[in-house]
Amino acid sequence: MKVEGQPAFVLHSQPYKETSLLLECLSRDYGRVALVARGARRPRAEIRGQVLPFVPLVLDWFGKSELRTLARVEWLGGVPQLSGLPLLSGFYLNELLLRLLARDDPHEAVFTAYQQAIIGLACGELGAVSLVLRRFELALLTGLGYAPNLSHQAGGVIPIEPEQQYCFIAGHGAEPLPLVLPVDIPETGYQCLVSGTTLLALAHDQLQQRWVVQEAKILLRTLLDAVLGAVPLASRRVLHAVHEPRTRVWPVMPA
Amino acid sequence: MNTPMSLAQLVSALRVLPGVGPKSALRMAYHLLQHDRSGAAQLAHALQHALDHLGHCQRCHTFSESPLCDICLDTSRDPQRLCIVEMPVDLLRLEESRCFNGFYFVLMGRLSPLDGIGPQELQLDRLQQRALDGVVQEVILATNYTAEGEATAHVISEMLRGHGLTVSRIARGMPVGGELEFTDPGTLAQAFYERRHLASS
After folding, report:
1. Digit-coded pLDDT (tens) for B49-91
2. What CA–CA distance (Å, rounded) separates A69 from A77?
3. Interchain contact B24–A (C-beta under 8 A)
4. Which residues in chain A touch residue B158, judged by CB atoms under 8 angstroms apart?
5. What's the complex ipTM?
6. How far is CA A91 from CA A8, B181, B198, in A?
7. Under a CB-based contact definition with an 8 Å cutoff, are residues A29 and A40 in contact?
8. Which chain A residues touch B154 with a CB distance below 8 Å?
9. Quick check: A62 contacting B, CB < 8 Å?
10. What is the largest CA-CA distance in chain B?
């Protein structure tokens, strides 16, 4: 089967045989695909400067097996290379996709959300990184069919009130506090406290106040953890080690 | 017929090499034992010798047969500048380019968040001790311009922030003697984004 002109991003690349690269790509119409870029590691291979992560590309490939062969790369560009915190955040997005998307399972909405997130990371302000991540996390959960109901309580009848505090239970929904037990709750163990203001702000894509952004982060992390299972994300660990001083792994030495 | 024990052991030992699967390992083993027995003995001896005598330099962490490597022992070098590279081969390339007269630190890898290689696995605390010895004034990050190399440079620059050091990164852009006509779009685009300011009105 030959595929031509497919918008895609490289998520991860690793050396393959003597001179090739094995690329994990996210394509718009074919989902996650594994491609071999033949000769991409030769010293003067032109393709090497193109099959980079976090860059919009158009790819052609062929092949019948799970591992296809990359035939052509077109550089769409328009996005500078990521660096610093946006780069580490980009790795986080890629790890989420590698962990949660099966191969050859297309999700056009997830592709569009990823494209917007990369543009946001590359061209946006540094302070907006967490908003970009939250938006993508919600779009990914929605695209995969795990969309949380953010406007109504569990059961889908009673609307969320901004002044009310809730316990959000993954796979179940928001329950108002104090909890009236017994509630028919799946025993996932993934739950967190969240205010109605945050749930509604997330539903309407209006995350503004600092505490709302922080609550949304915890909520989305809880929901993602429920889908990801027990194995923690490696990129999240690196992000924490670098950008959250309390958990830094290196000792602080006197200057 | 069962494979003799020693042949099976050799095949499985050869498979530790990167990119060598069962078939390649068997081919290598047959070749060594049938066609090049002296070469096989030489290989065994060289491996054992390297294992016994080769370690890491205490200061720059590159491969060395003595506690300090030749470069670290060279007193004519500038001790105020420290260049950080991923692998010993990168150090050799920089030495060939004759552009740097300071000392090196070899990471022996790169940060790769997707493969679970973080600051701890790279043992960056050792680099921190080396860079903060009180003599080094400038740290030059010469990690690769791949996404992983960039991430490594970022993490090291964050680690060394606030210690009174100058931290710089080797430049990225058009190759020397490069013509726009023959430059790949990725390189050209990034050279454009990172263009230098020459004059203002």
Report:
1. 999 999 999 999 999 999 999 999 999 999 999 999 999 999 9
2. 22
3. no
4. 242-243
5. 0.83
6. 16, 32, 34
7. no
8. 83-85, 87-88, 242
9. no
10. 84
